[in-house]
Design goal:
This protein is of the alpha+beta class and 178 residues long. The chain folds into two domains: 4-73, Orthogonal Bundle (Arc Repressor Mutant, subunit A); 75-178, Orthogonal Bundle (Arc Repressor Mutant, subunit A). The chain has helices at 4-7, 11-22, 28-35, 39-51, 78-84, 87-99, 104-111, 115-127, 147-156, 158-161, 164-177, and strands spanning 26-27, 55-60, 63-68, 131-136, 139-144. It has a three-stranded antiparallel sheet, sandwiched between helices. A two-stranded antiparallel ribbon has the order 4-5.
């Protein structure tokens, strides 16, 4: 059995493992950008770390996301982290934090995507219970199902998103709590 120190003896492997530990839920291309490793090298070392159970794979649609098996365990919140890793979905979630509830056209105008694209993203968020829908008259209003859990995920992993919107959200939230 290989222990963690032996597995991380190679610099490339240690770089991959540390990057995944600091940024849970990264997909392959983002992991490649952050580690600056060649595709073949990254694939080889990820496969090794996965076989030795130091890294686990979470499949989400066409993306494969990577998590450290020895660090923070997300359990059912892994789906939330996977969704927040997607920029458009994250923008929708952050917008709903500011407005509490909003219609599809309002969200589309604020984010700069078409209503049909927003609808597709909202369906994904609703089906994963991140966002809920309330109908009033003929309009559908979308709101965060569990804003506290979502806020915690964003604030605890702020640095891993590399997103100025998340940074701004966390700054405002921390000022409100102070």
């Amino acid at each position: 059995m290989v222990d963690l120190d032996d597995a991380l003896a190679l610099g490339a492997r240690e770089k991959i493992y540390r990057t995944i530990s600091k940024n849970p839920g990264l997909h392959f291309r983002e992991l490649q950008r952050r580690t600056d490793l060649a595709t073949g090298s990254l694939q080889y070392h990820l496969e090794y770390l996965t076989k030795k159970h130091f890294v686990k794979i979470a499949k989400q649609g066409k993306f494969v996301r990577y998590y450290n098996t020895r660090g923070e365990q997300f359990g059912e919140d892994e789906t939330l982290m996977n969704l927040l890793r997607q920029e458009s979905l994250r923008k929708i979630v952050l917008f709903l934090f500011t407005k509490k509830s909003a219609t599809n056209p309002t969200i589309a105008a604020a984010i700069g995507l078409s209503p049909s694209t927003i609808s597709w993203h909202l369906n994904k968020l609703v089906s994963n219970d991140v966002v809920s829908v309330r109908k009033r008259l003929r309009k559908k209003y979308f709101f965060l199902t569990n804003p506290e859990k979502t806020r915690l995920m964003l604030t605890q992993h702020k640095t891993s998103f590399l997103d100025s919107l998340v940074d701004h959200f966390v700054e405002i939230w921390e000022e409100m709590e102070a």
